[in-house]
Structures are given as C-alpha cells and as structure tokens.
Amino acid sequence: MQNIQRLSIIVPAYNEDKTIRRIMDKILAVRYPVQTELIVVDDHSSDGTFEILQKLAQELPPGRIRILRNEVNQGKGYSIRRGIETAGGDAFIIQDADFEYEPEDIPLLLTPLMRGEADVVYGSRFRGRFWPAGMALANMVANRFLTLLTNLLFFSRLSDMETCYKLVKKSALAGIRLKTKRFDFEPEITCKLIKKGIRILELPIRYNGRTAREGKKIKARDFFIAIAVLLRNRFSDA
How many CB atoms lie within 10 A of CB 171? Predict the structure, then answer.
C-alpha cells in the first residue's frame, strides 16, 4: 500500500456562478477513502462566483475549503498551477467547476494509487465509448487527434490526453516545471510526465459535455496551441 493519506482536490473556476455551489456540494458529499482538502482557485470571476464561494466557506467548518483568487484573469492552467503549489496532499486531482465530470468517480481513480499500482491515473472519457455524451463533434475530433498525436510523438498508448481528471502523486512532479497558463496545461503535464518515464494508467469515467452556450470556454485556437505544446515538448526541453 502506498502512503496516500491526503488528497488535494483543485477546482479552477472562472465565471461559474450557475454551477459552482452545486458542484461544491457534490464534491463535499462524496465519501473518500483518505482525508481530503478542497482548494478552489477563482480566476478573477466577474459574475458572483467568488462571492458564492465565500458564502459557502462561512457555512462550512473552518479549513474545510480553501479559496484563492487571482488578482487578474490568468487562465485555467495558471489557476491549476497555483492550486498545486499550495496543495498539502500526497496527491492531487483537478475538478472542473461544472457538471461534465462526476466527483463520485474520484475514489475509483484513487484506488490504483493507494494499491501502489500507479503514480498517475487519468480518467478517460473515451474508454468504452467512441463518442462521449454531450461532446460536440468538433471537440470529439480534436480530442482524438490530440491524443493520437501525443501517442505518436511520445510512444504512449493513451485514449484521452485532454481529460480534466488527472490524479497525480505530488512526488511524480519532482523535477518537473509547469509553465502554461491556459488549456495547454493538459498536453504540457502529460508530455512532461511521459518524458520523465512515468506511466499513466487510465480508467473509464462518466462524462456529460456542455456547450459554449452553457459555459464551455475552450476555443478553436486552443487546439492549435495544444499542437504547438506537444511539438515543442517533444523536440526540446521546454
């Protein structure tokens, strides 16, 4: 058994006032096999997200939730990196502030780490299905292409490089410097973990995608940025 005693759940949030309270309630309702800390990094929201989080923190026991706020809007990757830097857990997982991912799947992803079977576990939206529910066709094609490119460049066998659910032992990041600020966090951390020689275990998870109208923020340009990150990390020490 691995010494995983505490899990840090990192929630980057930007203008999620319609979902933030309910997803927090879902995270808090899950029964985890280890102690957890909940870190929410508000990326300078302008819609009341931060105020909702402050109210929630007042309702909970002291220390149950830690809320950080960026002084200016920085991007999802920056918010995740800030959360990782302040995390006190033996491992961390990233949780989006909407309902695309189901917090009840987190204990499932944690099991291989606790058994010593892996240092990194990705929750795959594509294991067991070709087209995840609610995912737009363009996003499905982009996700599959970026994962294929990752596998070709780094000789990996992933099914979902872009998944949000990345459960990582803090020790696996030793010697790795993360730099990206936006959605390019996903390819960057994946590249650097693989180059370090860390095998990424994948397990299937539930997923229900949302549309841009519902608040999905990733843009077409992020697809091309991800390609650039993959190529740069393959052919340099970026």
Answer: 12
Tell how strand 166-169 and strand 120-124 pair up. Answer: antiparallel
Q: 6-235 maps to which CATH number?
A: 3.90.550.10
Is 151 exposed, middle or buried, given 0-12, 13-18 or 19+ CB atoms closer than 10 A?
A: middle
Residues 146-155 pLDDT 10s: 999 999 999 9
Q: At residue 60, what are phi and psi to the nearest 5 degrees?
A: -95, 160
pTM of the model: 0.92
Q: How far is CA 236 from CA 73, 146, 192, in A?
A: 29, 19, 11
* CB atoms closer than 10 angstroms to residue 11: 25
**Which of 6-20, 38-52, 103-117, 222-236 has the lowest average pLDDT?**
222-236
Pairing of the two strands 35-42 and 65-69: parallel
Burial of 28 (0-12, 13-18, 19+ CB in 10 A): middle
Say which amino acid occupies 158: L
